[in-house]
């Protein structure tokens, strides 16, 4: 009977030592009981997708529920993470990287999310998604880390941080924001005068210097020149700018019921009028009179700065009054040029010599 040809591998196995063959078979049987790397379950770790070999059971985030609204997103529960483990957060498109310990420092909604009490939404890359504005989330993290944080400078920023603090239930930060907002006054308050009696009361009881703008466009005794309406608007705009800039130092009021004047600035110190800038005049045309409204911006600025000298309730600073005055004397203090001072000094010296030497 002829030998049937057999594969080379079979021929080699037939020529092997029986002891070697038994050892190889035993090794193959051990490998059959070890699951392949492909078949091993993988878990979503706090820092991304890693295999089960590098994650302890306490650090696993186990899927719980159906996938999220976007493809690849899923809701998960974080079960017993270590405080030193890092987590990746995507807050409204702003990416943050912090520890579980920081997020769980205080009894907030963040602690509930990262201690397993609430579900969190993760994407396919392991980022935990939070559907909130991420602009102030860094401030919230710093508050959780340190227990205090510098609040935004603007009222709008503090109000936005307050809204985020309420969402995350951070009570101490809520109190801090509300306390600052309660102290902040409105940018500017400009009362509208409705009567002459009210005007006198506001000026007499004001604790600051007063600037009043009288606007009475209804006075149409004469027709207006072409530039009058534009200049009238410029005066109003300047009043708004000055009131915003000096609201903490000057009390601004607006008179819209006024007298026969159309546009007039009045400046009060210690309850008395100290200056006035009238912006209207009558011009004569070939056939009739016209009302002209002007915009003396430089003069208005000058008087506004001068009125700041009356911030002291008792009396204005005499040195500043002397330095800013265009006249020779203010409040009994004389002002001389250098030539006048030298002449007066020389005359005083001559009188002194005559008195000492009568003969």
Automatic annotation (TrEMBL):
Any one GO BP annotation for this protein: protein homooligomerization
Residue ranges with Basic and acidic residues bias: 1-23
Region described as Disordered: spans on this chain: 1-37, 335-359
SUPFAM superfamilies per UniProt: POZ domain (SSF54695)
PROSITE patterns per UniProt: BTB
Domain BTB, residue spans: 85-153
Domain of life: Eukaryota
The protein's name: BTB domain-containing protein
Organism (species): Anopheles epiroticus
């Amino acid at each position: 009977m002829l030998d049937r040809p057999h594969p080379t591998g079979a021929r080699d196995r037939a020529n092997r030592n029986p002891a070697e063959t038994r050892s190889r078979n035993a090794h193959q049987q051990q490998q059959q009981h070890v699951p392949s790397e492909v078949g091993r379950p993988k878990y979503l770790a706090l820092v991304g997708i890693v295999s089960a070999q590098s994650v302890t059971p306490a650090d696993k985030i186990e899927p719980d529920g159906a996938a999220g609204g976007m493809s690849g997103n899923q809701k998960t529960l974080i079960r017993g993470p270590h405080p030193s483990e890092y987590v990746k957060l995507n807050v409204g498109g702003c990416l943050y990287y912090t520890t579980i310990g920081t997020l769980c420092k205080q009894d907030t909604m963040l602690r509930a999310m990262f201690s397993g009490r609430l579900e969190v939404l993760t994407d396919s890359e392991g980022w935990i998604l939070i559907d909130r504005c991420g602009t102030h989330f860094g401030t919230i993290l710093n508050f959780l880390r340190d227990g205090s944080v510098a609040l935004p400078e603007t009222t709008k920023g503090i109000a936005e941080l307050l809204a985020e603090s309420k969402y995350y239930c951070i009570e101490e930060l809520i109190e801090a924001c509300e306390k600052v907002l309660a102290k902040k006054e409105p940018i500017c308050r400009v009362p509208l005068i409705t009567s002459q009696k009210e005007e006198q009361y506001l000026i007499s009881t004001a604790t600051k210097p007063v600037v009043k703008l009288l606007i009475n466009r209804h006075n149409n005794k004469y027709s207006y020149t072409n530039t009058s309406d534009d200049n009238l608007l410029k005066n109003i705009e300047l009043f708004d700018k000055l009131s915003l800039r000096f609201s903490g130092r000057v009390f601004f009021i607006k008179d819209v019921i006024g007298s026969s004047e159309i546009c007039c600035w009045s400046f009060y110190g210690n309850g008395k009028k100290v200056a006035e800038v009238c912006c209207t005049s009558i011009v004569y045309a070939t056939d009739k009179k016209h009302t002209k409204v002007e915009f003396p911006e430089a003069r208005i600025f000058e008087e506004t700065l001068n009125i700041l000298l009356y911030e002291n309730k008792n009396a204005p600073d005499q040195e500043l009054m002397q330095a800013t005055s265009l006249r020779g004397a203010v409040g009994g203090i004389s002002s001389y040029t250098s030539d006048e001072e030298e002449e007066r000094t020389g005359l005083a010296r001559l009188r002194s010599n005559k008195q000492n030497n009568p003969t």
